[in-house]
Amino acid sequence: MKGKVIKVDVLCRVEGEGALLIKISDDGKVDAKFRIYEPPRFFEAFLRGRSYAEVPDITARICGICPVAYQMSSVHAIEKAFGVKVDGQLRELRRLLYCGEWIESHVLHAFFLHLPDFLGLDDAFAVARDHRQVVEEVLRVKKTGNDIVRILGGREIHPINVKVGGFYRAPSKADLRPLVDQLKWARDSAVKAVPLLAGLPYPDFESDYEFVALRHPDEYPFSEGRLVSNKGLDISIDEYEQHFAEEHVAHSTALHGVHIGKGMYFVGPLARFNLNADLLTKTAREAAKTAGLKPGCCNPFKSILARQVETVYACEEAIRIIEQYEPPERSYVDVTPRESMGCGCTEAPRGILYHRYRFDSAGLVTDAKITPPTAQNQPTIEDDLRRYVTPRIDMPLDELTWQCEQAIRNYDPCISCSTHFLKVRIERTH
Amino acid sequence: MPYRPDSVLVIGLGNPFRGDDAAGLLVADGIAEAFPDIRVIRHTSDGIGLLDVWAEYGTVIVVDAVVSGSPPGTVHVLDGLETLERDWFATSTHAVNLAEAVELGRAVGRLPSRLIVIGIEGNEFGLGESVSAVVGKAVSDAIARLVEITGR
């Protein structure tokens, strides 16, 4: 199939808008462009002049699937800037909120967006018809994640209860306790689904990626730690911009992430797992074992397994937090704005999400930088596509197109975060 | 919550920041204001969440923006239990749109016994918090149609 073009004008089953353009020259050379053509988000610009207190709510609007991640990265950056430390039960509650988001985001992606690809099915309803029990359980697991965010965050989407310094209102024990049974059920269900996922057909596709994630001495990372990689990176979050940059590329309205002096890198559940597996709970580690997933896994298709292992972990971590929870005396720590700069980097479901803000003495934003995980993964996605297609150029076009889409979905790209917009049409040219 | 066959639920679907995609939400707001006793939900997240909500009600009326090729402002009234055209609802930026949620509900046995879909033909879905003028008028029409359907 030399001299061919694989063109998917709009990808389906990704959040947001993106397109795929792969050109195969007559002599078999492959060029891949993962195009994002949504109008660029101007959040970084229109945050200027806003009060620090508004930032978590505004940035949460960037994404309907991972608003908690935006709120967490922003509050950590702001608190860093103003010299505020949020600890104890408030810190635990923030981890609990993140557990809720990971659960609902991961199961949505694994079962409704990605699993159809592995089963050769068009969509989630085809999956539901063939595996009704599995889908019914997944809906319940997802709802558990949503319930955590709703009860603790005050609303399922764009939680309203998060503020700089903590929460507007801390939940009571009675608010949270009913979640425990549901979470235990969800954990068991997630564990039960592992063999199904482990038995899927995985292409033999590996690369020597640089995986980048947070690393904390005591816990599987959500919001704190150092930034590490499997290739020797070990820096504080404050040093992020000395090591990572964003570049404009002509075909995309999202910026492309680059590890300065090194090149592309890989963030997300597989990166986190590879760098932090020892900090998972016992049940989650066993789930990984059942899945055949080992640290050092460099097959991006197996991200679906890493997501499921993290779902198990998030259920258990949520149970732990709720069972030890005692309402704090105050639901937030006092905050005094000052002229300053602060960075935050937290593990969104899709990978590290970096925020940096500069403030004037009144706490108004003078400058903002937001680097979402999908923008950081973009060069890796394109490189994967190029390498995936190169030995497969003689495959029928339809089949190869679908597999390319599946390869993009390995990264659970959240295109709304990195740009925005959605239409679905597939065109093929020869 | 126990199933009450005579109960009515109105769900407004949409994205408040995407122009005409807010149409369903505006209808929901209008109904909520005029009829405080009707249960009304504004649903801005993905369609999967509908499955948790609608099975408890006898009659569910969902209102959403659609793109079907009809003139903008057209108000479609559809039987939601028939197969809906997925392309009509492709304006959603979320993983599962209304048509897909219905199919999923059908596959797992989670559909209300009566489901009516009011689709408001939209035109401008760019970033912004206001609907186009023609859709604004259609919102009023849709509210009137909905009131007829509920027999108020």
Tell me the number of helical segments of chain B per DSSP (H or I, 4 or more residues long): 4
Strand content of chain B: 25-35%
The best one-word shape of chain A is: globular
- Kindly report the CATH topology of chain A: Cytochrome-c3 Hydrogenase, chain B
Distance between the termini of chain B: 24 Å
Q: Based on the structure given, which CATH architecture of chain B is correct?
A: 3-Layer(aba) Sandwich
Total individual domains of chain A: 1
How is the CATH topology of chain B named? Rossmann fold
CATH architectural label of chain A = Orthogonal Bundle
SS-based structural class of chain B? alpha/beta
Distance between the termini of chain A: 9 Å
Flag low-confidence runs of chain A.
Answer: 416-430
Task: Outline the biggest β-sheet of chain A.
Answer: 3 strands, antiparallel
What structural category characterises the helix and strand content of chain A?
alpha+beta
Oligomer: heterodimer
Summarize the structure.
Chain A has 430 residues and is an alpha+beta fold. Chain A has helices at residues 43-46, 55-60, 67-82, 88-119, 124-130, 132-153, 173-176, 178-192, 194-198, 240-243, 269-276, 282-291, 303-324, 373-389, 397-409, 415-418; strands at residues 4-8, 19-24, 30-35, 162-163, 166-167, 212-215, 226-229, 234-235, 244-247, 256-259, 340-348, 351-359, 365-371.
Could you characterize the architecture of this molecule?
The complex is a heterodimer of chains A (430) and B (152). In chain A, 44% of the residues lie in helices and 15% in strands. Chain A has 16 helices and 13 strands. In chain A, strands 1-2-3 form a 3-stranded antiparallel β-sheet, covered by helices on one side. In chain A, strands 6-7-8 form a 3-stranded antiparallel β-sheet, with helices on one face. The N and C termini of chain A lie close together (9 Å). Chain B contains 4 helices and 5 strands. The two termini of chain B are 24 Å apart. Helix content of chain B is 29%, strand content 25%. Chain B has a single domain (4-149), classed as Rossmann fold. The chains are: A alpha+beta (430), B alpha/beta (152). The A-B interface holds A 13, 15-17, 39, 61, 64-65, 108, 112-113, 123-125, 128-129, 132, 135-136, 139, 142-143, 146, 156-157, 416, 420-424 and B 15, 17, 44-46, 48-49, 51-52, 90-96, 100, 103-104, 106-108, 110, 126-127.
